[in-house]
Amino acid sequence: ANWGGPTGIEHRLLQHLWYSFLAVALSAVIAVPLGLVIGHTRRGSAVMVGFANAMRALPTLGLLTFLVLGLGLGLIPPLLALITVGIPPLLAGAYAGIANVGADVVDASRAMGMTERQILFRVEVPNAMPVLLGGLRSATLQVVATATIAAYVNLGGLGRYIFDG
């Protein structure tokens, strides 16, 4: 009974991966553009990095309980809680990657007549890609590890075995 059907491991694993994918994708949609802009313009970095570090300190289960009390049961509260786990590493990776591109490389691209958008997407993003992907990897690991809390509010996933056990 634990291997097949709607309560089987395959089904629970797919649910777990789906919740994780949604959370990482939405976190990336929010954090990566913000990190790119902040890293490129060098404005607002102290505020955004401080905000991202404050988000890391939030207890996810407590936040989930608070969101369920405010929004009710469903997919939205655990998704919002998982997004708060995914945003900080993505934001830090995007900001650090863009901010650490050599100033001489950026100056050379400006001297060639590139626009700011071209500098960002043709010079800085390719040079920052290893750090960006490191942030994505870190966010994915944290979200997958934390996605078991979705079972706390009667959703599926691998956490269902923990709460049912």
Structural commentary:
This protein has helices at residues 9-41, 45-56, 60-71, 76-99, 103-111, 116-146, 159-164. By secondary structure, it is mainly α. The longest helix is centred in the first third of the chain and has 33 residues, at 9-41.
Count of alpha/pi helices = 7
Biggest sheet statistics: none
In total, the number of strands is 0
User: In terms of quaternary structure, what is this?
Assistant: single chain
| Separation, N- and C-terminal Cα atoms | 15 Å
Query: What global shape is seen?
Result: elongated
Task: Quickly count the domains.
Answer: 1
Q: Might you state the CATH topology name?
A: MetI-like fold
Poorly predicted parts: none
Radius of gyration: 19 Å
Q: What do the pLDDT scores average to?
A: 91
Give the CATH superfamily: MetI-like
Helices and strands: which structural class? mainly alpha
Q: What is the architecture at the second tier of CATH?
A: Orthogonal Bundle
The CATH class label is: Mainly Alpha
What is the helix content? Answer: over 70%
